[in-house]
Amino acid sequence: MVLxxxxxxxxxxxxxxxxxxxxxxxxxxxxxxxxxxxxxPEHLSGVVRFDLARIGDVSGLDGVHLQCHIGTDxxxxxxxxxxxxxxxxxxxxxxxxxxxxxATGAEVDYVxxxxxxxxxxxxxxxFDLVYVSLGAISWLPSVDRWAEVVAAVLRPGGRLFIRxxxxxxDTMEPDPVTGRPVPAFPYFEHHDPVVWDDDLTYVQAxxxxxxxxxxxxxxxxxxxxxxxxxxxxxxxxxxxxxxEHDSVPFCPFPGxxxxxxxxxxxxxxxxxRIAMSFTLGAVKPS
Length: 286
Hints:
The protein has 286 residues and is an alpha/beta fold. It has 10 helices and 13 strands. The strands form 4 sheets. Strands 3-2-1-4-5-13-10 form a 7-stranded mixed β-sheet, sandwiched between helices. Strand 11 and strand 12 (265-267) form a beta hairpin. The longest helix is centred in the N-terminal third of the chain and has 19 residues, at 10-28. The radius of gyration is 18 Å and the shape is globular. 39% of the residues are buried.
């Protein structure tokens, strides 16, 4: 059922407005490498490059990228041969994604929708691959509802692939004195969101960018690894892979992390102490 504006949850309105503000900033940021996509027809996003061996061959697959943002990962999968559809709640993000696809000659379909409304927004279409990438599910209040959607849009024999920030990392913030990570936020899913009010984003803004974040309120939730795995299995998917990584493709602790040759950041000292991201794979039985 589609909610009208009066029924729409506050978190959706706030998060959509914030991501609308971020879209142009991210499209212009060197961190998203949009110019590299325009210059090099074989360029892939760092997130997709990191997981190439785990993703495997996607050529000829019908894929949907949930919470696709400005579409750089979606375009990367299309360049690997998948027939991709991207879905995001932010109209401005989808506009940037469509602009990038058109400029590179890629045939990617984009849909504006909240994740929970994806089965309706996709008109009942199902896919061989559901792809989800960094910084996605923490914007959703229920990981179980998310897994229900994934199962609904997957064909029998289709598979889920998600790499996201690790809930262990999401519990941390820099100590105000030392800059070292200290636990400050929930690990397990919780009813009430963590509400933020700031004009920050996670990328380097372009030097000539005139865009700013004016809608500063956002709502996020944590979902423990066990909760995520259990939700996927509860909705009939069979787990095929779960890997935890000591790196993430952005820098949550400035001055305390080292960037490697593929753009991943890990703690300079004792990287083995904090899980930064995870990759999960699952398949819907035929």
